[in-house]
Specification:
This protein has 287 residues and is α/β, with parallel strands linked by helices. It has one domain: Rossmann fold (3-Layer(aba) Sandwich). Helices cover 41% and strands 14% of the residues. The protein has eight helices and seven strands, in the order βαβαβαβαβαβαααβ. A seven-stranded parallel beta sheet has the order 3-2-1-4-5-6-7, with helices on both faces. Helix 1 crosses helix 8, helix 3 packs parallel to helix 4 and helix 4 runs parallel beside helix 5. The longest helix has 29 residues. It is globular, with a radius of gyration of 19 Å. The structure holds nicotinamide-adenine-dinucleotide. Nicotinamide-adenine-dinucleotide binds next to helix 1, helix 4 and helix 6. Belongs to the short-chain dehydrogenases/reductases (SDR) family. GO terms for molecular function: oxidoreductase activity, acting on NAD(P)H, oxygen as acceptor; oxidoreductase activity, acting on the CH-OH group of donors, NAD or NADP as acceptor. This is Short chain dehydrogenase reductase family. It comes from Ophiostoma piceae (strain UAMH 11346) (Sap stain fungus).
C-alpha cells in the first residue's frame, strides 16, 4: 500500500480555543471539579486550591467524613469565594458508584451554574513489602485502587463531559515513583501503579483529545502526609535518604502542589495534554 501523504489525512476538528488572556488564564470560576481522595492529605489541599481559584469542588473519598478541621476551613473559604464544596463517600474501585456520583455532581453543578469541568484523581494507597514476599492479593489491592480506581474516575468524568459535549481537564496524581524506584523503600506494587497511570494518561489523551478533554499527570516527590508519615514510622532512617536528594533542602508539603494542579486544570494550560508534570523539589534531577 502506498504511504499516506499529508493531504490524504483527515484534518482533526478544532476542539479548543486559544487560552483566555489576563487573570482568566488560571481562573476556575464557573467550573466544578471532582476530587477523589478529597477527605484529607493532598486531596483536600488541592480542593482548597480549586476554591482559591474560584472553582466549585466536589470531594469523594472512601472515608465516612473528611478531616474535620480542614473541611471547616474549606467550607468557610468557599463561602468567602462565592462558590461551593460538597462531600460524598465513594469507593473509587466501585465502577458503578463512581459513575453515579459523577453524574449526580454534574447535575448539581449544572443547576448551580458552574458546569462540571473535570477531575483530580488523587485517591491512592501505599504499601511496603519486599518484592520476594509480596502476595498477589495485596499487589492486586494496590492496583485496584491506584490504577483501576483512577481509570474509573477518569472514565466517569470523561463520560459526563462527552455526554454534555463540553471540553474539560483531568489531572491524575501519579508520583515520581512512576519513573524511579525510591532508595530504601520496598514498594513494588505502588511504584508499578504510578507508572501505569502515566501510561494510562497518554492512552486516554490519545482517545479524548478529540473531545477537548485534556488529560495530564502530576507527579509529586516526597510530601509529608498521613501516607508518608506511616512509611517513616516503619523506616525512620529513610528520611535521611530522602533528605540527601532534597535539592531545595526540604521535603514537599501539600501546598507545593496547589499551583501546579490549578495550572493543569485551567484554560491557561489549553495546549498541555498527555504530559507528566513532575514536582519533586529537584529530587529526580540528581543521582
Ligand atoms: N505523600 C506523598 O509523598 C506522595 C508522593 C507522591 C504521590 N502521592 C500521591 O498523592 C495522592 C494522595 O496521597 P496522600 O499522601 O494525600 O495520602 P492520604 O492517605 O493522606 O490520602 C489518600 C486518600 O485517598 C483515599 N482513598 C484510599 N482508597 C480509596 C478508595 N478506594 N476510594 C476512595 N478514596 C480512597 C483515602 O481515604 C485518603 O483520604 C495518592 O495518589 C498518592 O499516591 C503522595
Amino acid at each position: 500500500m502506498a504511504p499516506a501523504i499529508i493531504s490524504d489525512l483527515e484534518t482533526p476538528p478544532a476542539v479548543d480555543v486559544a487560552p483566555p488572556a489576563g487573570p482568566g488564564l488560571f481562573s476556575l470560576q464557573g467550573k466544578t471539579v471532582a476530587i477523589t481522595g478529597g477527605a484529607r492529605g493532598l486531596g483536600i489541599t488541592l480542593a482548597t486550591a480549586v476554591v482559591e481559584a474560584r472553582g466549585a469542588v466536589a470531594c469523594l473519598d472512601i472515608l465516612q467524613t473528611p478531616s474535620a478541621e480542614e473541611w471547616a476551613a474549606l467550607t468557610k473559604l468557599a463561602v468567602a469565594q462565592g462558590t461551593t464544596v460538597s462531600y460524598t463517600r465513594c469507593d473509587v474501585t466501585d465502577e458503578v458508584a463512581v459513575q453515579q456520583v459523577m453524574d449526580s455532581i454534574a447535575l448539581s453543578a449544572e443547576a448551580a451554574g458552574a458546569p462540571f469541568w473535570g477531575t483530580i484523581a488523587c485517591a491512592g494507597i501505599q504499601q511496603q513489602l519486599p518484592a520476594l514476599e509480596y502476595p498477589a492479593a495485596d499487589f492486586n489491592r494496590i492496583l485496584s485502587v491506584n490504577v483501576t480506581g483512577v481509570f474509573n474516575t477518569c472514565k466517569a468524568a470523561a463520560r459526563v463531559l462527552t455526554a454534555a459535549k463540553r471540553p474539560g481537564s483531568i489531572v491524575i496524581i501519579s508520583s515520581m515513583s512512576g519513573n524511579i524506584a525510591n532508595r530504601g523503600l520496598s514498594c513494588t506494587a505502588y511504584n508499578s501503579s504510578k507508572a501505569a497511570v502515566q501510561q494510562m494518561c497518554r492512552s486516554v489523551a490519545q482517545e479524548w483529545g478529540q473531545y477537548g478533554i485534556r488529560v495530564n499527570t502530576l507527579s509529586p516527590g516526597y510530601i509529608r502526609t498521613a501516607m508518608t508519615d506511616q512509611l517513616l514510622v516503619e523506616n525512620p532512617e529513610v528520611e535521611k535518604t530522602w533528605m540527601a536528594g532534597a535539592l531545595l533542602g526540604r521535603l514537599g508539603v501539600p501546598a507545593d502542589f496547589k499551583a501546579p494542579a490549578v495550572f493543569l486544570l485551567s484554560e491557561g494550560a489549553s495546549f498541555v495534554h498527555g504530559s507528566d508534570l513532575r514536582v519533586d523539589g529537584g529530587h529526580c534531577a540528581s543521582a
